[in-house]
Design brief:
With 272 residues, the chain is of the alpha/beta class. It is built from 9 helices and 6 strands. Helix 5 links the parallel strand 3 and strand 4. It is globular. Bound molecules: farnesyl diphosphate.
Length: 272
């Protein structure tokens, strides 16, 4: 395997990061990585700190992961930052999360531009504070012409309501004479999801060890490879991203088909 991965940030010679980077096959990178960033609360509790401290440390992990993914040549990175269900959390925590998002966008806009990253969000705009929506719009505008990695932040997002909304829109369209509901295809549904401009994730990463998908990209992860690490999100760094990608590269994706070897032996058996 010839490794031609170019990585702009300095990587210490002899470090684990460098070793793992040389193991990654640049020809088989996942095109789209989606991440359920979990464990901020536990990270804080282990340090006897308030949950908000965990989210603040989590924002640092976001910064490091976005930069590493872009430099590695990942085309799409989608981060689950705030679910529709997260509104149930204490007001103080919700405000802190929104504040951290605004701060991230304000501080990181230069780095997003430097790394040629295009920023966008998925989720419902309704319910977000004006100040948050303004910052999102600005980041979207200022990075809109970038041609590198697409960074999507899922904010006020719910996979089930995304599908419900797509069904409602399709139902409305079927009221138009000439539209036949029996002609609705998977592609039609995909084109009514928030993710219509994104390919399905190849790799879904979840931190902090929980084996759940938590209402994230329910339609889109039908054939994603799932990688769960015990690392708590605030501790997640590029080395952990490299580990996830290496694990992904060990998997054989069959999309419901059989292994190519099994296919040839079946054909051979039928020819006898
Ligand atoms: C889950 O941890 C994490 C979240 C609900 C929020 C993720 C937000 C950030 C990482 C910070 C800001 C985001 C951006 C994009 C800058 P949890 O609180 O559920 O942890 P626990 O399960 O240990 O309680």
């Amino acid at each position: 395997m010839s490794n031609t991965l170019k990585f702009d940030s300095a990587i210490e010679a002899g470090s684990v990061d460098e070793f793992l980077l040389t193991q990654i096959d640049p020809e088989r990178l996942p095109s789209h990585i989606a991440i359920i960033m979990d464990g901020n609360g536990r990270w804080a509790a282990r340090r006897n700190q308030p949950r908000v401290a965990g989210h603040r440390a989590g924002a640092e992990a976001v910064r490091a992961t976005v930069e590493a993914a872009a430099q590695l040549g990942i085309s799409f990175l989608t981060l689950y930052a705030f679910s529709t269900e997260n509104w149930k959390r204490p007001r103080l925590e919700v405000d802190a999360l929104m504040g951290l998002l605004r701060e991230f966008l304000r501080k990181e806009i230069r780095s997003l531009k430097r790394n040629n990253i295009r920023f966008q969000t998925i989720g419902r705009d309704q319910g977000l504070e004006n100040a948050v929506s303004r910052e999102i719009d600005r980041a979207r505008r200022e990075t809109g012409a970038n041609t590198g990695m697409v960074l999507t932040v899922a904010l006020n997002y719910s996979g089930r309501s995304e599908i419900v909304e797509a069904c409602r829109e399709l139902a409305r369209e079927c009221l138009i004479p000439g539209r036949d509901p029996s002609q609705i295809s998977e592609l039609d549904i995909e084109q009514h999801l928030f993710t219509k401009c994104l390919p399905d994730p190849d790799l879904l990463v979840r931190t902090s060890g929980e084996m759940r998908v938590s209402n994230f990209l329910l339609w889109q992860i039908a054939y994603s490879e799932i990688y769960v690490t015990d690392v708590l999100w605030p501790d997640f760094r590029r080395v952990n991203l490299f580990e996830a990608i290496l694990e992904y590269q060990k998997r054989e994706r069959r999309y419901g088909d059989v292994k190519p070897a099994a296919r040839s032996s079946l054909i051979a058996a039928n020819m006898k």
